[in-house]
Amino acid sequence: MAGVGMDTKIYPSEKYDRVRFSSDQGGAGPSAMNLKERKIQQDRFYEVQSALTLEEARYSEMRKKIPGLGRIPKDRINTQSQDLEFQKRKQDHVVFVKQNFRQIECSKFVPDPKKLGVKKIRDLKCHCGEILTEHAGLSSAQPMNNVQRDIVEAYLIPEKLRSHINRETLFKAPPENLASLLHSVPWSKEDAFRENICTTFGKISFVNNDNSKPAKYVRLSHNDSVDRCLELMEKHWKIMEPKRPSLCISVIGGAKSFKLDNKMRETFNTGLIKAAKTTNAWLITTGSNVGVMKAVGNAVSEGQSFLWDDDRITHTLRLIGIGPWGYVKDRKYLESDGDGCFPVHFKTSNIIQHGKPVPLNPNHTHFVFVDDGYRNNYKGASEFRASFEQKVSKPTEAGGLGIPVVLVILEGGTDAISDAMVSLNHHIPVVVCSGTGRAADILAYAYSHTRSKHHDSKTPRNRKGELKPKHEDKLIEKIFDAYGERWKEKEIEENIRLHLTNVKKCMEHRDLINIFPMNKHEDLDIAILTALLNSKAGETSDEIRQNQLKLALTWDRADIAQEEIFREDVLWPTGSLDDVLMEAIMEERVEFVALILTQNVVMKEFLTTQKLQELYDKSLSRMDSHHLKKLMRRTINSEEFSYDNLARLMESLMDKYDHNFDESSIVDTGPGKKFSPVLTNAQQHFKFPFKQLMIWSILMLRQKMAMFAWQMGNEPVTSAVAASRIYGSMAEHIHRNESALKEKVLTYKDEFEHLARSVLDECHIKHQEKAMMLAERKSPSWSSMTSLQIAASAGNRVYLSSVACRNSIDATWRRGIYSRWKVLVTVFLPFLLFTPFLEVNAMGEKKAKTFQKILTFYTAPITKFTHHSILYIFFVALFTYFLLVDYQFYEITTIEIVCIVWIFTFIVDELYTLLTFPSPTFHGKIRDWYGMLKCVDMLNLLLALVAFLVRIIDMEKHAEEAKIIFSINCIIFYIRIMKLYTANSSLGPKLEMIKMMFDELRMFLLVVIVFLLAYGVASQSLLFRQRDASWDILRDIVFYPYWQLYGELDFENAVHTDQECFESLGNFSSSSMTRMAYNVAKMKCKKEYWLVYILCAGYLIMGNILLFNLLIAIFNHIFTKVEEKSNEIWKFQMYFLTMEFDNKTALVPPLSIIPHLYLFFKWIARKTCCKKRSKGVQFTQRHLEFLQLFEKEEMANYLRHKKSEQKDSAESKLQKRVEELFKLVEEELTADQGGSSFNHTLIATQTTKLPRETTFESCPLEPNGWPKTEAVIEFAKKLEEKEQKEVIEEEVAEALMDEEQAKKEKKKKKKKKHKKHKKETQEEEKINNMDVQNNAKPESEAQKNIPDNAWASPLPPTTTRNLSPRLASQESPYKSPYLQRRLTPLKVQNDSSEDSDDVEDNAQVKTPEPYNILSTPRRSRSKLPASDSDSDVPRKSRKKKSLTRVESSTEDERRSKSKFFKRFRSRQLSDTD
């Protein structure tokens, strides 16, 4: 059901009720007016307030609360120019639509003979597809009487059918002879369709989507001009504002049967929205709330946002629905009475009925309804949409818009194949999302099995595709499976042939087709970009290459641009890349800027004064430049760019600035007259273009571009310090309410600070002296300022605490003196300068002479500091003596005069140091060196002079006041001693602590004073019931509570009763006062009160316990913070101390007045008569170039090391491991599915359903569709645990089996051993019997008769080789050769190597038969442990048994190796992850 009402206002949309206005809301008005006039006035107020901007509407509430002002300014009430302009725009819109667009209505109702199978006449459908009651005239929402209805029916229904079809027969069954009657009533669209003026246009406000802006819509005929439609969209709908689109994406596909799973939906939504937002693209669908159109609408709703341009709201994503008017559900509610609907409230739905119109998608921003006269038919808009896309894609020279168009296909019916064929014929690239089904998979299959053939040309455009014959049958089968169920049997062959032909025609433009597998984790936006580039790959036009480059720039794909666009065979004309380079700089595409600069583009030639002016002008017009406008307004009181304003802005940020114009081509023709014979002012170049680019990037907060300009520019160290200085100054001008912006700027500042220090440290590692030179060098590109000066003015402690800077400062501090402690000795014993005691650097000379040594010593800052410290301490002691002892009230003593003269020399020395301090500007000198403490010091010195002058004027009258001032001077003089502590690394940071603690103490006192006054006022009001006004009250309120904080309660004087006061009054009877006067006098006496004790207890708890502990915590925090950076703080302090004493004269106060007078007269002479002709420089151009090469080289080394560290970091290793896991899983799954009959390319295009456990379905995904790293690690851990569990279970099972088998083998061995032992016993008995029969000697006697050489004969080498080391080295007590023969099988038995059999064979063959006295085998009596030796077994049985054991041992070893490898692999995976 559509909306219930319409309104007539075009902007803004009226979603809210009108408010009631009183006469005082717009200023003064008539007090009495009739109802009609009041209604007119209220409407007028409403219209005026609706026309206010958001800023003006915000102030309306504030105006209301100010007496005399209403919500609306009076001048706005009486001004009708805006209303007139608004009405004019509305009228122009209405007139344009009525003049250029038509709508088609059927004027003849004749039922379609093919659709007579209905139960009632009202359900009969005309040839146009609509029922009678929905035809023009009868479908109006306005009620009609019978007469009006009869007139309309007489116009619509032919005379022959009027008796059977009318308003009275609508609910009856159709007559039986209706089919025969219809043969005599002809119907044709030429006779039935009538074109009328368009009345269906305006805005749609979807009730289901309140948060959206109303969508604009228009209904037009399919014969209307596409040019007029684009003109409507551009001029009246403002669709090109605020930015022209760079791409048009047309999406087609399935409707009611279309579905996407979660992964595919996320891949599609992410890629589509990224592509649309990146290029500000138009998205085109049919606009219905079904299938692909609904999917695109949902994707847009997720990524939709708004742009605010003053008071106008525009969508960032433009989703245009170009669909058939006749297939829109509830379309009659979009019709108007002729002037449009602004807006119409429309309700959409998600219910889709088969064969009936579908509702609109509420996420579309624009609708173009194409009316071909037919209803309930969705094919009416395809031709107009194709013409629209062709017009958009045509070049501007051919009358088009020059916007590239890409067709994206998801699933889809046969019309999707037809639309793809039409687009390809017009050279529009197509992206096929394979894996979504039907048309998309058919085209993907055809693409995968099509081979290219050449047709009289070598260009890619003429390479046509030919389907392989063996795959044509499979393609026919796919077409039938996708669409055959809906076809009639007689239409199958014809339809298959038709669609097969269309697919083949599509393959003729194979180079324009790009297959995007939806089941892969890839980016759809990259597929769209690739399709656009491939579509123009064979063309060499400069405009086409420029468009390709702009597309690649929009997508920020420098890699694709380098491979596909910047080829070696392409020659780019001079200046052809300037626009692209400017756009890349504006959009902060650093990789593109670097790539373009490699194409023979020189930044010095590109960045002229005109280009820089254009860069600033474009930047200031962007939305992200508000911070720069505020900065310019606060510093230079202007928001317009000019080079003078830029210079003023930069001077306010870093004290000194120079544009560094390149004047090499400018000729000097006279005093103050210069001209350039070649270049104009707009074409003037800069000496240091990358410096200008870096400054622009910093001001616009483009950190990546600033880093790139820093890397490409000159003097990396100084430039990094200058960048941190600019960022720091910008942060100071940012309001504290903008904390996020300030934090961002400070983060950028810290990055450049650490960058400068890191590069300088890299230089110091390579060469210490050159690193110090870099710190001391006066930069040609940064207004001859050194990096130390810039860092000091910026408060850059990180840079100043670097090793090179510290060495430079220390070298300046000592000025060639090697030893520090020898300086102090030499100060007291100056004659040591004439001895080798003090070593001084020769500074380029072969040997330091004595005179040079003396000058070096007395001009060194460390010597000046020592002299200053000694003399200052002496001055403080003298001033102390003067104040305590020598001060005379009636005369001025000599010591007083000496002290005053000394103080005067202090003032002169301070002024001289201020003027010579190395800051570029006087304001910088005051800020950097002359801080708060210096101001106090100077004020103290001036007060001392004032006190002395006052004392001279009137010594007797003002002697007391002068001594008070001198006492205060003494305090400051003593405090000033702490300045000397700066030279100590331990005491220097403590001064910073004291300073910070003092700042916090001031804030703390503001808190304490609240409690102090609260308690003081309350206690005094209770102690004194009545009191006269006096200053004693203020004293009592502050004095007693303050000292009570420190434990001085003094209850006797503070809270106890004043007995003396009461005693002084006495009794009333003895008093001469009246009763009232006496009572008043008693009330003025302090009297103890119990509540004061309670208040005092609470006050002490809050003050002593809470507030003091808070102060301690604050001080502890400050101590910890300063202690962590104490080294940086001290080095920072030492810079200022060094610069101060470096610029002081060799003689310190009071003797410094002599060189100061000399320098003063010298300065006067230089300004008047003796001008200095030339000024020397420290480094010449050759030296500067040498230092710059060294600096750039070390910067490159540092960046290379940093990049290498990032690659080797744990995070990069983890990411690499994750990628390997993904590849492993993908390969395994591909291998598992390798049995499919399709080739690898087809497999990539099909939807793959993988197990949840393998494909990480349960894992959270990144925007690119890949699982998150944490999820993959968790998954790997689960796999590891599972594998470990399986390994443990397997080991347990094998252990049980081995145990059972071992028991069985043990039993078998027992039986065999028992049998063997029995057999051996029987044989031994036989042998003994034979010995008895042969009268053989006993064994002991036989051993006695054995020759000695038989015992002492060594073991043969072959036998020794077979023995284990233990047995070979062990000396057996039995040295019988027979024993040696018995030991040989032990080696075979215990060794499980592969050559066990060979060992035994060698032992048997090569070893000679040992000597046997009895000629019979005998048992060995060796002390070796018992074994299962088979030496007594025959050789064949023994060999067979040995082989069995070797095989068994090899199998066990293989099994153990397998287990070990599994455990090792699992542990390795766990450790790596």
In short:
This protein is of the alpha/beta class. It is built from 60 helices and 18 strands. The strands form five sheets. It has a ten-stranded mixed sheet, with helices on both faces. Strands 1-2 form a two-stranded antiparallel sheet.
Residue share in β-strands: 5-15%
| Inertia-based shape | extended
Percent of residues in helices comes to: 55-70%
Rg, Cα atoms, Å:
51 Å
Distance between the termini: 58 Å
Major sheet attributes: 10 strands, mixed
> What structural class is derived from the secondary structure elements?
alpha/beta
Average predicted local confidence, pLDDT? 78
- Output the strand order for the largest sheet: 10-3-4-11-9-6-5-12-13-16
Number of helices: 60
What is the strand tally?
Answer: 18
pLDDT under 50 segments (min length 5)?
1-33, 454-462, 665-680, 1233-1258, 1336-1450, 1460-1473
